[in-house]
Amino acid sequence: KAVTLALGMSLWFLVPFIEYMQFDIRVSNMETRGNFSSHGIFLNELLDMFPRGVGSSNWVEYELYNDVEMPYALGMGMIIAVVGLVICLCKCAKKDEQVKFGQICLRYGVLAAFMTTVYFPWDILTQYCSLVGEVIKRIQFPWRFLSIATLLLTFAAVTFFNVAKEKCNSIHYSAILIFVLLIIFVSANYFM
Q1: Coil, strand or helix: which one is 56?
Q2: Alpha carbon distances (Å) from 149 to 62, 78, 129
Q3: In angstroms, what CA-CA distances link 129 with 27, 51, 82, 134?
Q4: Does position 25 have pLDDT exceeding 60, yes or no?
Q5: What are the beta bridge partners of residue 56?
Q6: pLDDT tens readout for residues 38-79
Q7: Mean pLDDT over residues 155-166, rounded?
Q8: Which of 46, 62, 98, 131 sees the fewest Cβ atoms within 10 Å?
Q9: Burial of 78 (0-12, 13-18, 19+ CB in 10 A)
Q10: Model pTM?
């Protein structure tokens, strides 16, 4: 019963996947080796305040001549909350379990965000070891680490809001929360 139920619930993925496998489409080939970093994003794209919600993934040379690239921004609300957590970590003398968890998420989230950029040495890693090169080739695009960065930095941002709720009075906490929410709405182009 459980296997039948699991297969039935997975049909939304399995049917298109099986159909896709019938075609001779190759998305990972050896020509991408040594060119992986060119699919990374620039720091200004990662920290963009007003990203456009259209476009596709481009490599660096194409991007210079085309203006329709998909948005890669973390969002200003996220960045403000992460900066707030960094300030809290600098000021907190006693770190409880929640703050330690936020600190770990912050470190690995920033690392994952850095891994999405053109500045991370992907091409050097692919040349260093063939096994690492094969794994990197399967990843295909460095910006795929953006989802990991977003998840980890979201945990860090939630830690900031919980620490701010404990440390600040209710008026200051409400002001911080309203400010971040306004930044999120403005940077998401809701009012533009």
Answers
A1: strand
A2: 25, 11, 25
A3: 21, 36, 34, 9
A4: no
A5: 69
A6: 778 888 888 877 766 665 555 555 555 555 666 777 878 888
A7: 86
A8: 131
A9: buried
A10: 0.70
